[in-house]
Amino acid sequence: MVSRLQINLPDAEREALGRVGLAGLKAMASLHGTPSAKTMAAMTGVRDHLLHIDLDLESLEPLPPQELARRLIAIDSDPQWRERILRGMTLIAMFDGDPSADHLRLLSDTARAFGVDDAPVATYRRTMGKRLMLLRLDIARRSFLGAAVKTTLRQEGLPGALAIAKVLLGQEDKAMASRYRALAEYPEGSFGRAYADFILRNGFNFPGEVGGPPPPAMLHDCCHVLGGYGTTAKEEGGVVGFQAGFEKLDPFDVLMFVMAEFELGIGTSPYIPGEKNLLDPEYIFAGIEHGTHVNTDLLTDMNPWDYFADPLVDVRQRFNVLPRGREPEFADDVVEQGD
After folding, report:
1. H helices of the chain, where?
2. More exposed terminus of the chain, fewer Cβ within 10 Å: N or C?
3. How far is CA 194 from CA 68, 103, 241, 306, in A?
4. Please, what is the end-to-end C-alpha distance for the chain in angstroms?
């Protein structure tokens, strides 16, 4: 299974694998004719942020499954590269408009030619069907949400489980809410104060308040703060990409949460409805590159309460969260500009 996205290969091998792999992605993108702007943006993101190679995508010739498999194995027989490319092709299919039987057929043919686990193909198949509840449950189980729940239960035990249950039942937890609200009184520049400012600036509720998220979701919000990500759909794509770069999970499973929520219109969160075609692939793949530099899985191996009193700059340095190179964009700013 693919678990981390760093590509530690000699330059020549990385370039050869990248050229062939992108030809596979190009086959998916050009399945119905000229590739769309969004699928080309996704391929550009892979090229620039994951592969770091110089390649003209416009002139790149697509490769059919059998030839794609043959060339990949000739370069490097490790199946992880075929697994990565199958996942990339699945994302390209999802960026290429509504799910279709043609996309599914090419994915299935590719998985067979590659001789690898077809889990991404099964996920794509579920997006086409009517059994969306199973898809939602699968995404929740495999994505960062499942990992965040396990982390909360490990760190807080039974009280953590009861806190999650209260939120799901729509009940207030006064002690929890007070604990989180107190972060607004932490020193300016501290991680805890930055987290509280993020919650208040966006009009969110704190964990423990009625309508607030369960404690595991706080870990995702901490990634917003540490990574410097805002709250537009594009920024959500960026921060989930950031998480995919450092988490121990399959990055495809991590990305599926945001793909379902903001690209496919399949709501996976009880707090926001599913919407279509709102993601920007550049934000996602730049986020992934950003996350690959982080030295710790921030969702499973960091307890934010251990660091909330510390200066945010020190916490970022501790976990090697580098400057993002882009200012965060917030949903209310976009609304105001639209007005």
Report:
1. 11-29, 37-45, 65-75, 79-95, 101-114, 119-128, 132-142, 144-168, 174-181, 191-201, 215-227, 233-246, 251-262, 281-292, 312-318, 331-338
2. C
3. 47, 43, 21, 15
4. 46
How does pLDDT run across 226-252, given as a tens digit for each residue? 999 999 999 999 999 999 999 988 899
Both tokens of residue 244? 């995919």
Distance CA(196)–CA(207), nearest Å, equals 11
Please indicate, yes or no, whether the overall pTM of this predicted structure exceeds 0.90.
no
- Which position has the token pair 């970022």? 316
Could you give the CA distance from residue 140 to residue 167 in angstroms, rounded to a whole number?
A: 17
Q: Are 61 and 26 in contact (CB under 8 A)?
A: yes
Burial of 251 (0-12, 13-18, 19+ CB in 10 A): buried
Range 49-75 average pLDDT: 97
Q: Is the pLDDT of residue 167 over 70?
A: no
CA–CA distance, 57 with 200 (Å, rounded to integer): 43
Instruction: Give residue 217's pLDDT.
Output: 82
Would you state the structure tokens that stand for residue 129, as one six-digit string? Answer: 């069907």
pLDDT tens-digit profile of 2-22? 545 567 789 999 999 999 999
Question: Is the Cβ–Cβ distance between 114 and 86 less than 8 Å?
Answer: yes
SS (H, E, C) 93-138: HHHCCCCCHHHHHHHHHHHHHHCCCCHHHHHHHHHHCCCHHHHHHH
Per-residue pLDDT at 31 exceeds 80 = yes
Distances (CA, A) of 252 to 47, 142, 243, 305: 17, 9, 11, 29
